[in-house]
Design a protein that fits this description.
homodimer, alpha+beta, 60s Ribosomal Protein L30, Chain: A, 2 domains, 7-stranded mixed β-sheet, about 25% strand
């Protein structure tokens, strides 16, 4: 008799798993407007909608406490959740924070963590309204849920991109990834010879992008001020390439992006060269930038091009045109998702 | 120079920690009606309120996969969250499910877990609308957030108990705890000699109460049908004694409960005797019963006493009268919280 071999999670990846576990379920409540498959779930609340998103941060997977100050970790944990609310064009309002901690943590360590959480609450104007605390067998796990509000007609999904829309990205990309490489290198040096202190001087920007990312609520505000309503939006947590493909897939479209338009800070580029990594690779597949990737109608071109923090990097195409990047040399390259996979073997 | 010794979490306990980390914070949004300190947070949503609660389940702390079928675990994880929504006299609507899993889990194992989650979704009529998946360094962590709705005037807090109110509890208590003792005993026997198979026969009730608890939505429905609005309510996750003290503290009241009125199933009592544990101790401090503990005005006595699944176990007193239990012998005993502490050393 043949026994079926169990399928390992690393074989199917995070999105494959979510697909397998959550497809073919019907929603029973009319208030469940949008379930799995966007940056946040959307729940009808009468004259407006509530948005709900949740993220896990696991020690040894998402962060390493050797070089992550607890205060920064708390701040980042809130930022990454709030970022998902902004990515729906909504305003964050509340968060819940659950933590599982091993006995090695003291009250003072957790107060440090919470000082970062509260700093982010102040920054993003959200209330901490609940949570859970538990022991853990090893290390620290943080589970944060963010709740936001928006008018129903203002919510922006991944699925709304239209052919000829402009593809835009805020800020710059790849810095968080290359900052992580630097931190990992300095950690390795320190572990070999503890008398050598980490040399992070002059690298504040890329290290800060990794350890204390900001959610781009300012971009949402800017777009509103200029009366620009994106047609599709997502935040960049897994890398530009992966996120563009989400918009294309959900909108049933293709795209053309231009290598030379992808914003990369010069400090990112310099450090990438030091590591012998193409800066472009950091931007496409690095992830953790928490910038916003969105599409706007072509008619908004004049408005968008004036906005300093926003870069037009390409346009939406019909599906048949595929998802391609035009390189600086003029070649076209198929975009692939090679970014962060929460279930990849490490 | 004197260095301050770090405070270990086990010294201050779960409620002490929550208090230290969350007190002295002001809420900035008027929509944040109730934050930390009840079974769920309450958020104003216009013509109704949304309730949000979240619970962590950590392998090795909250469950042991040696005797916990993954399907049961999935079901229980939803039950315990939904139970917190019912405890606010609200209706559950949506859940999010986040999981961190180590590489030892296969797709098939997670499908088993989700079959239990979906079984509970069907039972409690909730939609799964989101979540997150991640690797973990060790074992399985589940983080579930449940969202419910209620009219503002229907929500029942822990703080509403009035002097002379009746104290009521649904179902029976202590079974989940003694079921756990039985499972632990059989596990220990099996580990010593794997040729001895676990003997759980005839103990379906207590084992089921531990592995697959039900949230008491039927009680909420029953109370509504009989137009009984509790003045205060909480679900019993940490043991009757601890929960009564929460109501007393939050309502600024005392209480008198009567030992002989505390509902204990005969199978619970028999197994407790086998373990040389007072059945009363299981009920007072065992926890994980997920029954509802609530107070109702004295005028509802005639209505409540007819309801089979509800037991009147005492009454609310002025604060100065303390929180006491009258034993079967007529002695009074001070109630103490000795139930589950998520941060106790194990």
């Amino acid at each position: 008799m043949e026994q079926k071999k169990p399928t390992m999670l690393s074989e199917i990846g995070e999105f494959g798993l979510i697909d397998r576990l959550t497809s073919n379920r019907k929603l029973v409540h009319t208030s469940s407007i949008k379930a799995v498959g966007d940056d946040a779930a959307v729940i009808d609340a009468g004259d407006h909608c509530m948005l709900v998103t949740t993220d896990l941060l696991v020690e040894g997977i998402h962060f390493n406490l050797v070089y992550t100050p607890l205060k920064h970790l708390g701040y980042k944990a809130v930022s990454v959740n709030v970022s998902d609310i902004y990515a729906m064009n909504a305003e964050p309002r509340q968060i819940t924070v659950s933590i599982a901690v091993s006995g090695k943590f003291s009250l003072q360590a957790l107060e440090e963590l919470y000082s970062g959480i509260y700093m982010a609450c102040d920054k993003y104007n959200v209330d901490l309204v609940g949570g859970d605390t538990s022991s853990s067998v090893t290390g620290l796990t943080l589970s944060i849920t963010a709740i936001g509000v928006a008018k129903r007609e203002e919510i922006v999904y991944r699925s709304g991109a239209q052919t000829n829309d402009l593809i835009c990205v805020s800020g710059d990309l790849g810095a968080a990834y290359i900052g992580l490489q630097l931190l990992e290198r300095e950690k390795a040096i320190f572990e070999k010879d503890p008398s050598l202190q980490p040399d992070l001087e002059g690298h504040d920007y890329i290290v800060g992008r990794q350890l204390k990312p900001e959610a781009r609520g300012d971009i949402i505000k800017l777009l509103k001020e200029h009366k620009i309503q994106p047609t599709a939006m997502i935040d960049i947590s897994d890398g530009l390439s992966s996120e563009i493909l989400h918009i294309c897939k959900n909108s049933d479209k293709g795209c053309r992006i231009y290598q030379e338009k992808i914003p990369i800070d010069h400090t990112t580029a310099l450090m990438a060269e030091e590591f012998n990594i193409e800066p472009l690779i950091c931007a496409l597949h690095g992830g953790e930038d928490y910038e916003l990737l969105f599409t706007v109608p072509l008619r908004d071109f004049d408005k968008v091009k004036e906005l300093k923090e926003i870069h037009i990097i390409g346009k939406v195409m019909d599906k048949e045109e595929n998802a391609l990047m035009v390189s600086s040399g003029g070649n076209t390259i198929q975009l692939r998702a090679q970014g962060w996979d929460g279930l990849a073997e490490r």
